[in-house]
Design a protein that fits this description.
about 35% strand, alpha+beta, 5-stranded antiparallel sheet, single chain
Length: about 180
């Protein structure tokens, strides 16, 4: 059997969940100050997995910062949003992150997720919350592949299904 993609599990990734009114200018300013990026459109990521913002839902963002700066970024956000209704939480240690890279990375994910991953439907900067086999997960496409985030409690399962999906023969159906 051939390997369709390389699966890499990352040790640490700084992540902050922010729940707030995303149309509030104060929220937008706080996000930009912490990341250097604007709030992305629905289903998109601004920046990257090292320092970026992922649109999770109409009132939720996942903010990515370097792991060693997450506490400072969280404090910066909380201070900036003083008096604004919000919830900001460091979820770095509650999540597992994987990169799926290679010529057939798209197919590896398509085998596991109910998402249209055809190249014309899903491209660099696109983001989805979905299921990865039997567990909730989210992923986005970048220049070299996809990053996948799931709960750390199911990280071993997610890694196993990703690795199994990466074995086999490509179908070539996703162009």
């Amino acid at each position: 059997m051939s390997e369709l993609a390389t699966i890499t599990r990352h040790a640490e990734r700084g992540m902050i969940t922010l729940r707030a009114d995303l149309s509030d200018g104060t929220v937008a300013e706080a996000v930009r100050a912490a990341t250097g990026h604007a709030i992305p459109a629905a289903g998109k990521i601004a920046g990257d997995g090292t320092k970026g913002v992922l649109w999770m839902s109409p009132d939720e963002l996942l903010i990515m910062v370097p792991y060693d700066t997450v506490d400072a970024a969280l404090e910066q956000i909380v201070t900036a949003l003083s008096g604004v209704h919000h919830l900001a939480v460091n979820v770095s240690d509650a999540r597992a992150v994987f990169t799926v890279a290679g010529d057939h990375a798209r197919e590896v994910l398509a085998r596991l997720c109910p998402v249209d991953l055809h190249a014309q439907s899903f491209g660099v900067g696109d983001f989805r919350r979905t299921r990865l086999a039997q567990v909730p997960a989210a992923f986005w496409q970048h220049e070299t592949g996809f990053d996948v985030v799931c709960f750390r409690s199911v990280g071993d399962y997610a890694e196993g299904v990703l690795r199994r999906s990466a074995q086999g023969t490509p179908t070539g159906a996703l162009g």
